[in-house]
Design a protein that fits this description.
Layout: E1 12-16, H1 42-54, E2 59-63, H2 73-81, E3 86-91, H3 98-106, E4 111-115, H4 120-126, H5 131-144, E5 149-155, H6 163-170, E6 177-182, H7 187-191, H8 200-211, E7 217-220, E8 251-254, E9 259-261, E10 274-275, H9 281-285, H10 292-295, H11 312-315, H12 320-327, H13 338-342
Helix pairs in contact: 1-2
Length: 346
């Protein structure tokens, strides 16, 4: 079936081009560090880029591991941008070099996002000494080179209460956006039992207050929420509201060996819908049995506190990946703050 005639339109993708990384963070969801032995070749990656563009995908976030540790990263990005696909690269910002910056500009990279998970002491403790300073230097250097930069912060029990302090460090940096998301207990975070619980309402309140005066956009990701009174002003764009998990509906994830999932945060073999070495992207995307957890969702599938929620038919229980790795149930979100807001005051 031609993807243009298919009811679900692929709009965006997250593509892990390698697992190689200069870090081995204790909370890394993909267990990055060493490249897989059978990662897609350059020729295979260029073909995947072609398939993404042909399927109508218009935005790709390129990740690792550390994407810049793959020698042919620029070829892959150029194969996308030359076909009209916008590309953001997510990096730890540790090994930024003039040659990388030059290549980023040459291949028309739309933006670069740098992971920064706390103030210097917190960030370095989970990565390595000096990583905070390297990351902030990278933000400044990229901006000076005319490349739009943003920050992504993953929240755990230890760093969530320190968001105001981190903002004081970020507020004068040349950012266009700051995305705040929940660290999921998958990969290394699950293996190491990293404490990930935090007060979602406190984070939402912080974002609302900060977004009104910040020089850059401040927003929470799809795994924090939902439908609190602040919903219309905490998603990074005025009036934006969470419309349910988009995995397999408008977005996909691709890992470094060609496995396709509805979302690259659904890092479990049970969510693999096919492999690009044996099936085309169009074939996987248009498979009538693929991504059934979202394509066949109905409100009566909700469980726990999500069942009976007035927003359930739209919210659909929040982030599938976070739900799976925290509760083991796809349609029940333990980080939802709206049920707190709906409780009668005593």
């Amino acid at each position: 079936m031609d993807t243009r005639d298919f009811p679900f339109k692929l709009k965006s993708a997250v593509w892990e081009i390698t697992l190689a990384c200069c870090f081995n963070c204790a909370y890394c969801g993909s267990r990055g560090g060493k490249a897989r032995e059978n990662e897609l070749t350059t020729a295979e990656c260029l073909d995947v880029a072609h398939q993404l563009a042909r399927a109508g995908c218009r935005r790709v976030s390129v990740i690792g591991g550390e994407a810049f540790m793959r020698p042919d990263w620029a070829q892959i990005v150029e194969a996308l941008t030359s076909r009209g696909v916008k590309v953001c690269i997510i990096t730890n910002g540790f090994k930024m070099k003039p040659q990388i910056i030059s290549e980023l500009k040459r291949v028309n990279t739309e933006s670069v996002a740098v992971s920064l998970d706390g103030v210097r002491e917190v960030h370095d403790a989970y990565r390595q000494r000096g990583s905070y300073d390297r990351a902030t230097d990278t933000l400044r250097t990229l901006s000076q080179a005319g490349i739009p930069v943003s920050v992504i912060t993953s929240l755990r029990s230890d760093n969530a209460p320190l968001l105001p302090e981190l903002y004081r460090r970020l507020k004068d940096l040349p950012l266009f956006a700051w995305q705040i998301q929940a660290c999921s207990p998958m990969g290394n975070a699950g293996d190491n039992r990293v404490p990930v619980k935090f007060d979602a309402q406190e984070v939402i309140s912080f974002v609302k207050e900060t977004a009104s005066t910040a020089r850059f956009a401040v927003g929470i990701a799809d795994n924090i929420g939902y439908y609190t009174p602040e919903e219309g002003c905490v998603r990074g764009l005025p009036g934006a509201c969470f419309g349910g998990c988009s995995a397999g509906l408008t977005t996909i994830g691709i890992d470094s060996v060609g496995n396709v999932r509805g979302c690259e945060s659904m890092y479990d073999e049970s969510f693999i819908e096919g492999n690009l070495r044996s099936r085309t992207l169009a074939d996987i995307w248009t498979d009538p049995d693929a991504f059934a957890y979202n394509r066949r969702f109905a409100a009566d599938m909700l469980t726990g506190d999500c069942r009976g929620c007035p927003h359930g038919d739209i919210c659909a229980g929040g982030c599938r990946s976070y739900n799976y790795f925290t509760t083991g149930r796809l349609y029940e979100n333990c980080l939802c703050a709206s049920r707190i807001c709906m409780k009668p005051k005593t």
